[in-house]
Amino acid sequence: xxxxxxxxxxxxxxxxxxxxxxxxxxxxxxxxxxxxxxxxxxxxxxxxxxxxxxxxxxxxxxxxxxxxxxxxxxxxxxxxxxxxxxxxxxxxxxxxxxxxxxxxxxxxxxxxxxxxxxxxxxxxxxxxxxxxxxxxxxxxxxxxxxxxxxxxxxxxxxxxxxxxxxxxxxxxxxxxxxxxxxxxxxxxxxxxxxxxxxxxxxxxxxxxxxxxxxxxxxxxxxxxxxxxxxxxxxxxxxxxxxxxxxxxxxxxxxxxxxxxxxxxxxxxxxxxxxxxxxxxxxxxxxxxxxxxxxxxxxxxxxxxxxxxxxxxxxxxxxxxxxxxxxxxxxxxxxxxxxxxxxxxxxxxxxxxxxxxxxxxxxxxxxxxxxxxxxxxxxxxxxxxxxxxxxxxxxxxxxxxxxxxxxxxxxxxxxxxxxxxxxxxxxxxxxxxxxxxxxxxxxxxxxxxxxxxxxxxxxxxxxxxxxxxxxxxxxxxxxxxxxxxxxxxxxxxxxxxxxxxxxxxxxxxxxxxxxxxxxxxxxxxxxxxxxxxxxxxxxxxxxxxxxxxxxxxxxxxxxxxxxxxxxxxxxxxxxxxxxxxxxxxxxxxxxxxxxxxxxxxxxxxxxxxxxxxxxxxxxxxxxxxxxxxxxxxxxxxxxxxxxxxxxxxxxxxxxxxxxxxxxxxxxxxxxxxxxxxxxxxxxxxxxxxxxxxxxxxxxxxxxxxxxxxxxxxxxxxxxxxxxxxxxxxxxxxxxxxxxxxxxxxxxxxxxxxxxxxxxxxxxxxxxxxxxxxxxxxxxxxxxxxxxxxxxxxxxxxxxxxxxxxxxxxxxxxxxxxxxxxxxxxxxxxxxxxxxxxxxxxxxxxxxxxxxxxxxxxxxxxxxxxxxxxxxxxxxxxxxxxxxxxxxxxxxxxxxxxxxxxxxxxxxxxxxxxxxxxxxxxxxxxxxxxxxxxxxxxxxxxxxxxxxxxxxxxxxxxxxxxxxxxxxxxxxxxxxxxxxxxxxxxxxxxxxxxxxxxxxxxxxxxxxxxxxxxxxxxxxxxxxxxxxxxxxxxxxxxxxxxxxxxxxxxxxxxxxxxxxxxxxxxxxxxxxxxxxxxxxxxxxxxxxxxxxxxxxxxxxxxxxxxxxxxxxxxxxxxxxxxxxxxxxxxxxxxxxxxxxxxxxxxxxxxxxxxxxxxxxxxxxxxxxxxxxxxxxxxxxxxxxxxxxxxxxxxxxxxxxxxxxxxxxxxxxxxxxxxxx
Length: 1218
Description:
It contains 34 helices and 36 strands. By secondary structure, it is an alpha+beta fold. Residues 1029-1198 form the UBC core domain. Keywords: Glycosyltransferase, NAD, Nucleotidyltransferase, Transferase.
């Protein structure tokens, strides 16, 4: 095995080497890493070497070799060259090569001679160049360390740090920065050595909804970070295009993650590309104690890092080749999907379907996410880091649009919150069985209470006999039914709504379909964890890695589950530490205590309630007669009764969710399946199925969340003592049908309140299917006195009576013993289409027969845990921004009427409001009489809270020390959205300049400032509702605008503000001029002798939380229906999402607003802007206001709160967004 070979070679080297100048070989901190002392340049240096992929050792592996920080530059350069020549060489030969190249000497002054047994044809060389030639061209004789390399191609050489090489790096990274990303690096980037480059951007810039950020466990202030690894020095796009796939993977790799800062540390970058071995994980766990409650800082994996890293490794280089054959990203991905594994995979005889550009709504994603450097750039010298970052954004921000196994587009048009896999059988199998795709580990780490909830519901459903869907097709191997003995005799029950009875097994088989298997007799030593067989001549009945159930003959009632670890000493074999299932017997013995897990070798057992540990006797060191059953029964062959039995017996072997979470926190790079001695694969498969089959996005609502924070505003007020779980979104297909029903009914009945809320109670065993399939009324559980349908009540106490309170914990309980929640009751608050007149009944219960009219929004559970996530306080924090409910159908909680926060409604339907993370020392947004979450007003640039380090700014400097500014070819042609959120090319120098710029003296425009007659304009007085906060911000923004205007050429700037004429900070007059003469708009202006477009910007009291109102005063434009364009409405208002709640950001500058308005007017898509040929007068503010509102309604944008008051200068009161 490759890993065993590597470990053996390293152990031999550690035991002692006879290489001149080499000593103290030690194992490193990461898998595949080792260090050694080397005498070089007259000093002892600790050299570090890393095998990038141990699974390729010793046939095709690569090394990354690093010198300490204080090493001479010549040593670092030489080591980089050695890494290229050490391809596929074992550890011994690598150290010989290092010794030779660095001219190391031993204590006697002798230099290293290569081993004559390995290189018997090698003659003594006199120069380093000849040694280079030998390792590059000659084929060494195979030894016990290295197989014949034969056809293996050496890795590409290191990059020589020429001036052109460094200029290309600067060009690539400056373009990336100009497109809105922060740039960082580690290692010898500019010296052509091994290095890491990172691009990042704040999460808040990506247009991700608040629900998605909560579900993905990211904060707006954090960064999405992409790390690019260059083991052999920086490679440009031109170089990568010339590589085949194996060479590309050796020279270029990518990893994505989330960071609290814009770049990872060197160690974090190493860790991102390193997989830990089992031995390394165990050693780290023993040597370090991790505080599992401390939030992770620095770089970490995201919830979909694993599938996206696989996509980048396996497909990205190939997709780039397709891109340069004329395909857009969607066409390249479709071509790959259609041709992967076929003989014509490289045949690029393309069909039209691969060449069509993908339509992406600019209303849904910001341009930072949708930009395409390859398509937009006029220069063919494309930036590889920028293209890679844009590809990552495509699949990170839009992850819900793609299957996370095959990455084909999902058919759903609903804006889902959680990514999933498509319906292809192979994708489902790989997700459920092999652990590909979305990470259940992320769910356990981020939502442990939700996982506990899902497992508890499944366990109850299986025990009561209600479970109907099963994890079939996953090839789960489980114990035969005979292995359980009497442990679960008659424990599976039937429920008829009022009481439970033992459920008989299937009539076809008393074993539920399990085959009859005889137990294997043997002797078992619990102290040494060994099994001894009587007849050594018989074949060993198990293999290493198999799981078995053991029972001793003197205590047949106690079963333990073990993994076979070693069979090499058969007839004696070794097993791992036994796992004792927490079955119902534990509950009967200790009704009030639920031990986390007992182990046969432990001396203490800690329970969840007992403060004093229980001392148990150590097992005797003796072999006792026993027998075992092998996990060799195929789950799919069982009948339903047997499948339910298998599910709850396997769940009994699981540790608690808290234990699994602690394991994952200790081993940050390891999935659950690496816990091989604790988790049976079948039990892990059932757990994965439980989590993965839930397509609803359920969020635990923590009681300790700050009341004014984002999470604190998710709590419903009026249900003290109950733990709350919020359904951010139901299953996508069910949610889509519900939304359609709401819209249709609202339109049909002209409803003011389109939905109402009501309670529904149901026993625990029903919730597994309710969460996945929704409510139905197929089974009659409590009678139907008021008709057929799903019963709801406005009083929670009525629904509590149906919630199964008498089917909870205790000797006859049916809940998962390892649950920390210990759920005894559950009831839901459902959102229902508000059409009581069409219900089956509306008194005394609401009976709804239309299943698509019902969607669960909150789940309330009564727990028996010591630390419930619901609060028991009678004084609950009230949400700042509650839902306005229909007064005739207001639900009541245990504390009177409930107050439901707006977060109960999915973001696609709730009134839009800017909502950001809680950050210290930031301003708070206010709207009317209610306060919302504090938000970060800092922009994501070098002046933000995390400044770019000097070491990263240095890479932009030219050879003479000046920082290069990009030319026009560094970015693509501007489009109406291509510069949104990005730095303007003309102003980029200001980001880096060391001093103030001097304004050029010559201007190339016929526009003359100061000629506009302000007496003809509708000037406003200072509004009475002006606020101090808004006034101060406007004055600052006005000063910033003037600074830009005073240092830029007039014709390059394209706009002008007459500072002497602005007397009201809430009304600015701006002239747009000097348009490109090739535009129809510029030609019309020339014909009419019009020098400028006069704009008016009006600001409200909530600025900068609310956007300004931007309209054209003169001249009049041709309307859309008359063939005009330029994003100017018939009333003169600008039709741009940027100026609505969806598109506006408080960090936007007025300079960027003017830039984007100008770009929008210059747009030729779908039609160019043209001037009206009539002689009509200026646009009036009234028609502009009405036109803006019409445009918002057409596009589904929310009109900013207080818009009319702002637009009319206080003449009309603010309109409600309802």
